[in-house]
Design a protein that fits this description.
Distance between the termini: 44 Å
Number of helices: 7
Largest sheet: 9 strands, mixed
Bound molecules: 1-O-pyrophosphono-5-O-phosphono-alpha-D-ribofuranose, uracil, magnesium ion
């Protein structure tokens, strides 16, 4: 039966169960829409415009979940008819896209959090060693945000996320979140052990890294696919 095949495939793609933890840890956000858009990203025939749109859709869905513990305070507003109670965010939120690929996630997240500050960090992986190389950092020396949300579609070895978390720790950020679309098991384990207080949100954890430290099955090079800089030689 066709239905049986679909069910089997669904089982095979199922994510590990969500371990939500406000004190740190990994949350795998499992939702049918997330899995549908993630499948578009994985498909090697997906062209850059749909790839970018899918990254944005996923960023929206994931940040909705990743901001569930933001704090609000009571406020009062006047509707056209009467006064009523409401809430306003009571925390300074910083969005930290990791250049380049993290830029693909910033616009939809800023739409949801229009009052957020955006602090860019430039990191790229050395092609030989896969170690993160820092090339842009303009964080101020003091007055850290209350909550920082690192945005980067890929968490492979975890080296880039850990470098960003270290920078935020030095800035004095007390609560840091990492929102990535795909992580490797090795990468989330490394980040969770080095930064147990960090809250990591991913759409899927893939089993392995290849010898070039790319996530398998993964989606290839996220930055190249977002910015259409895939090497065609
Ligand atoms: O977990 P890691 O092993 O550190 O790998 C993940 C990093 O690699 C990619 O960036 P890349 O270095 O390709 O830079 P780019 O975004 O400029 O393409 C990705 O966007 C992450 O930042
Ligand atoms: O699989 C990977 C690993 C690092 N960076 C990517 O864009 N993809
Ligand atoms: Mg890249």
């Amino acid at each position: 039966m066709p239905g049986t095949t679909v069910e089997k495939k669904k089982d095979r793609l199922a994510s590990p169960s969500s371990i939500s933890n406000q004190l740190g840890g990994v949350t795998v956000i499992n939702h049918p829409l997330i899995q549908v858009h993630l499948t578009k990203l994985r498909d090697k025939t997906t062209q850059p415009s749909l790839f970018r749109a899918s990254v944005k859709r996923l960023a929206t869905l994931m940040v909705y979940e990743a901001t569930k513990d933001l704090k609000v305070l009571d406020t009062v507003v006047e509707t056209p008819l009467t006064e009523t109670s409401g809430v306003a965010l009571s925390q300074r939120v910083g969005l930290v896209p990791i250049l380049r690929a993290g830029l693909g996630m910033i616009d939809p997240v800023l739409d949801l959090l229009p009052m957020a500050e955006v602090w860019h960090l430039g990191l790229y992986r050395d092609e030989e060693t896969a170690q993160p190389i820092r090339y842009y950092d303009k964080l101020p020396p003091q007055n850290p945000v209350d909550v920082a949300i690192i945005l980067d579609p890929m968490l492979a070895t975890g080296g880039s996320a850990m470098a960003a978390l270290m920078t935020l720790r030095e800035w004095g950020v007390k609560q840091a979140k990492v929102v990535s679309l795909i992580a490797s098991q090795e990468g989330v384990d490394a980040v969770a052990s080095q930064f147990p207080e960090a809250q990591i949100y991913v759409a899927q954890v893939d089993p392995t890294l290849n010898d070039r430290k790319f996530i398998v099955p993964g989606l290839g090079d996220a930055g190249d696919r977002i910015f259409n800089t895939v090497d065609h030689s």
